[in-house]
């Protein structure tokens, strides 16, 4: 194990629970570190259920195209922890990350603290000590009690589409979950909102009104739509005809539109139209409907099969993903096979149900053993109940081996999905590392 891996393992043992939402421990730790969260570049704080990472990717690409130096903080990582922290455009190296984590551990002095709180504090130290023009800060879970929410005065609060997820922590209704996400809204700070169910939008609107936060909501202050393969964006300042997003799927028009709305709503973030175009064309975000053309894992699939990867894992993500695959099926028909692994706290029926009538087969696999996954047999039982031809395999490679032994005609389109943790193992096994 590398020194960084050993250090992360030691820090993960400081708190008995993986998730324990609270701001008290984080505020104490930040104070012991000299409050680095108060010395950050302008912060764009991003919460929501689906599309956070893609929206951050579009924001980063557009800002960097305009010559801005951009920090990003996202989670979870896929293959290497370093993916979570990007300093002025570059992934943090092991030496700097270890140094920051050691300083955080010393300041914490053995007190109870969650792994996410430790790593967020280390990220704040690194962001405060490295010059940049903007910090794109993604919420870990929820918003109101998330460790990132000790930020007092971001330049923008962004809320991506909200759906049911993490009910054990955030509540089991859209209104309750929206209340947690809306907890990032700060007094008089613009809040830019993606497409929302009516129940969620009502909660966001009330919270913004209470905090006198200017609201820029899709369908009200701005719109986005696809026209002839182009992204057409409109707000009170005019209309933009922009290129098709690089990331695949109709939902990426929504994510890119939300990024454009954010950059236009906040004067400090404004970039010229050529930078917006470059950002939409150039954004990269692994494991979001990502085609894997080559690699040792792909080589185990049937000859000429397509292998796709997506980390979507809730009902809303499943619907967006199924819509994208349905569009692809219309253009290039192939039998769709799901290779799926999911965590035990996810709505399996809600996710898989989106693919009913679209995918003919579901091969169920375990997620990495360190995570609490749904047993493949249980996944297969649920899938069969939804009408899939369901089976199990020991891992994604074995699932592809099985397809190769019994090839479909034409060769199938294989979608590995259901978990970002599963996606990370696939990228590592296929030697397709995020950079």
TrEMBL record:
One of its GO terms (cellular component) is cytoplasm. Residues 46-204 form the Mur ligase central domain. Pathway: Cofactor biosynthesis; tetrahydrofolate biosynthesis; 7,8-dihydrofolate from 2-amino-4-hydroxy-6-hydroxymethyl-7,8-dihydropteridine diphosphate and 4-aminobenzoate: step 2/2; Cofactor biosynthesis; tetrahydrofolylpolyglutamate biosynthesis. GO terms for molecular function: ATP binding; dihydrofolate synthase activity; metal ion binding; tetrahydrofolylpolyglutamate synthase activity. It catalyses: (6S)-5,6,7,8-tetrahydrofolyl-(gamma-L-Glu)(n) + L-glutamate + ATP = (6S)-5,6,7,8-tetrahydrofolyl-(gamma-L-Glu)(n+1) + ADP + phosphate + H(+); 10-formyltetrahydrofolyl-(gamma-L-Glu)(n) + L-glutamate + ATP = 10-formyltetrahydrofolyl-(gamma-L-Glu)(n+1) + ADP + phosphate + H(+); (6R)-5,10-methylenetetrahydrofolyl-(gamma-L-Glu)(n) + L-glutamate + ATP = (6R)-5,10-methylenetetrahydrofolyl-(gamma-L-Glu)(n+1) + ADP + phosphate + H(+); 7,8-dihydropteroate + L-glutamate + ATP = 7,8-dihydrofolate + ADP + phosphate + H(+). Keywords: ATP-binding, Folate biosynthesis, Ligase, Magnesium, Metal-binding, Nucleotide-binding. It is an enzyme of class 6 (ligase). Its EC number is 6.3.2.12, 6.3.2.17. Residues 303-419 form the Mur ligase C-terminal domain. It holds the Pfam family Mur_ligase_C. Its cofactor is Mg(2+). GO terms for biological process: folic acid biosynthetic process; tetrahydrofolate biosynthetic process. PANTHER family: DIHYDROFOLATE SYNTHETASE-RELATED, FOLYLPOLYGLUTAMATE SYNTHASE-RELATED. Functions in two distinct reactions of the de novo folate biosynthetic pathway. Catalyzes the addition of a glutamate residue to dihydropteroate (7,8-dihydropteroate or H2Pte) to form dihydrofolate (7,8-dihydrofolate monoglutamate or H2Pte-Glu). Also catalyzes successive additions of L-glutamate to tetrahydrofolate or 10-formyltetrahydrofolate or 5,10-methylenetetrahydrofolate, leading to folylpolyglutamate derivatives. Belongs to the folylpolyglutamate synthase family. This is Dihydrofolate synthase/folylpolyglutamate synthase. It comes from Azorhizobium caulinodans (strain ATCC 43989 / DSM 5975 / JCM 20966 / LMG 6465 / NBRC 14845 / NCIMB 13405 / ORS 571).
């Amino acid at each position: 194990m590398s020194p960084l891996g050993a250090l992360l393992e030691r820090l993960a043992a400081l708190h008995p629970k993986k998730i324990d939402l609270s701001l008290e421990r984080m505020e104490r730790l930040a104070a012991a570190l000299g409050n680095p969260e108060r010395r950050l570049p302008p912060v764009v704080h991003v919460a929501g259920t689906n599309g956070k990472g893609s929206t951050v990717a579009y924001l980063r690409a557009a800002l960097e195209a305009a010559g801005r130096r951009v920090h990003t903080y996202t989670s979870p990582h896929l293959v290497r922890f370093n993916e979570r922290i990007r300093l002025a455009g570059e992934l943090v190296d092991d030496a700097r990350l270890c140094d920051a984590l050691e300083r955080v551990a010393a300041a914490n002095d053995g007190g109870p603290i969650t792994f996410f709180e430790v790593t967020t504090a280390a990220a704040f130290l690194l962001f405060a000590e490295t010059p940049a023009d903007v910090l794109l800060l993604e919420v870990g879970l929820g918003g109101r009690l998330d460790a990132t929410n000790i930020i007092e005065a971001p330049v923008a609060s962004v809320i991506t589409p909200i759906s049911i997820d993490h009910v054990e922590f955030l509540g089991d209704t859209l209104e309750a979950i929206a209340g947690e996400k809306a907890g990032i809204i700060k007094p008089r700070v613009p809040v830019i909102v993606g497409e929302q169910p009516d129940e969620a939008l009502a909660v966001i609107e009330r919270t913004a009104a209470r905090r006198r936060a200017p609201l820029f909501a899709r369908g009200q202050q701005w719109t986005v739509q696809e026209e002839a393969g182009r992204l057409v964006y409109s707000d009170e300042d005019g209309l933009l005809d922009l290129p098709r997003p690089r990331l695949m799927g109709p939902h990426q028009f929504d994510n890119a539109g939300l990024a454009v709305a954010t950059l236009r709503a906040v004067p400090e973030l404004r970039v010229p139209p050529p930078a917006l175009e470059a950002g939409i064309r150039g954004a990269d975000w692994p494991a979001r409907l990502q085609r894997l053309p080559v690699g040792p894992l792909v080589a185990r699939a049937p000859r000429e099969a397509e292998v796709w990867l997506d980390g979507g894992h809730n009902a809303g993500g499943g619907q967006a993903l199924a819509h994208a695959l349905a569009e692809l099926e219309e253009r290039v028909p192939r039998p769709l096979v799901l290779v799926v692994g999911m965590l035990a706290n996810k709505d399996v029926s809600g996710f898989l149900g989106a693919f009913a009538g679209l995918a003919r087969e579901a091969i169920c696999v375990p997620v990495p053993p360190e995570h609490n996954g749904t047993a493949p047999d249980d996944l297969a039982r649920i899938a069969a109940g939804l009408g899939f031809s369901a089976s199990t395999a020991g891992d994604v490679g074995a699932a592809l081996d099985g397809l190769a032994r019994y090839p479909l005609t034409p060769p199938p389109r294989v979608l590995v999905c259901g978990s970002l943790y599963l996606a990370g193992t696939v990228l590592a096994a296929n030697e397709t590392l995020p950079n």
